[in-house]
Write a structure and sequence with these properties.
single chain, about 350 residues, alpha+beta, Rossmann fold, Dna Ligase, domain 1, D-amino Acid Aminotransferase, Chain A, domain 1, four-stranded parallel beta sheet, globular, metal ion binding, MfnD, nucleotide-binding
């Protein structure tokens, strides 16, 4: 029988390494929802006997099938228990934000400890944690990305052709410190101390979309793309999403996601790909915005639509085994914290 270890940074005590305050708010709810959904899916696998979860002792504990909770009381506690669990588990999934090297650090520790990861490894995480490197990597391989460049602090000279632009931390996660800047004059409004390095890229109008892929040594499978619901205040805060897309848009998003995924080094497990679909029906204006080398909130809706167990597909993909996925035509809308609202709408046939 197998043991699965799921590490989700916010619920697992990762915040001990940042400050003494327990996590709270929407990010905690989002992290807990992803952890719970993934844990339930692994527990549904007959060959899995135990799902191990590190648990910040300051938070209310979950009650999940086959769970084994390991309380965490300090930074040292979190580090020691993490290393022990990745060594003991049959498989490990790591979910953490990319900023400040939080995800990369834990993946590297897991690899050094000899853990069997069925989520992305350090080579992919390191690449995707640097938005400029990711953009350059994709562009060199023929995947469309927005024009842009990186810099430290406010530059003295700026390429005016990039405006309107989007400015974001080089290692950001989600919409943290992201903002639209319509002209060089608005650069004075940016707090450049929020990040040591930044990327500025030309704003691309269109439909924001995310597409998840599950991959491994034998290739990858794209899951139904989701429309992203973002705030309209120029900060691009993630509010949730909806799926499925109209068929013509889903085909474009899938083609772009697969092209991006095929370019990534040692793709393993679940990876999210954010993009913008432009107005051209032939997809000429479609671009990849960034790569999320971890589970994303859309997993919560996709598992509802899936006719097979997505966690089992991750396990099989990482092992180089074949797997089959199909999805219900049911329409789902979900919030950033994973709350699902469904309707009777089916996949469009256009």
């Amino acid at each position: 029988m197998q043991t699965v270890f799921i590490y989700e940074f916010l619920t697992a005590g990762g915040c001990w390494s940042i400050n003494s305050e327990p996590p709270a708010g929407s990010l905690l709810a989002e992290g807990g929802a992803m952890r719970d959904a993934l844990a339930e899916d692994f527990a549904a696998m007959g060959e899995v006997a135990v799902v191990q979860l590190m648990h910040d002792a300051r938070l209310t504990p979950p009650n999940l099938p086959k769970q084994q909770l390991i309380p965490v009381h300090s930074t040292a506690d979190e580090r020691a228990r993490f290393r022990q669990l990745v060594q003991e588990a049959s498989a490990t999934v790591i979910i953490a934000p990319e900023f400040s090297g939080l995800l990369l650090d834990r993946v590297q520790v897991a690899e050094a400890a000899g853990g069997r990861l069925i989520s992305p490894g350090s080579e992919l995480v390191e690449l995707a944690s640097d938005k400029q490197r990711t953009s350059d990597h994709l562009a060199r391989r023929g995947v469309a990305v927005p024009l842009g460049s990186s810099f430290a602090g406010m530059p003295e000279v700026f390429d005016s052709s990039l405006f309107p632009a989007v400015i974001k931390p080089l290692d950001g996660a989600g919409s943290r410190h992201v903002r639209r800047v319509n002209s060089p004059d608005e650069l004075q409004l940016v707090d450049w101390n929020e990040s040591p390095r930044w990327r500025v890229e030309k704003f691309v109008p269109g439909l924001p979309v995310s597409a998840a892929v599950i991959g491994g040594p034998q290739g990858c499978t794209c899951l139904p793309p989701c429309e992203q619901i973002l705030s309209q205040d120029g900060r691009f805060a993630y509010l949730g999403g909806r799926t499925p897309l109209p068929l013509r848009l889903a085909k474009r998003a899938t083609a772009l996601a697969v092209a991006a995924a095929h370019s990534l080094p040692n793709l393993r497990g679940y990876v999210g790909i954010d993009m913008v679909l432009g107005s051209a029906e032939n997809g000429a204006g479609d671009v990849v915005i960034e790569i999320n080398p971890r589970l994303t909130t859309s997993y919560i809706a996709l598992r509802r639509a899936g006719k097979q167990n997505l966690a089992q597909a991750m396990w099989q993909a990482a092992a180089g085994e074949s797997f089959r996925l199909s999805f219900s035509p049911q329409s789902f809308e979900f919030t950033a914290d994973g709350t699902i609202r469904d309707s009777a709408v089916s996949f469009p046939s256009d």
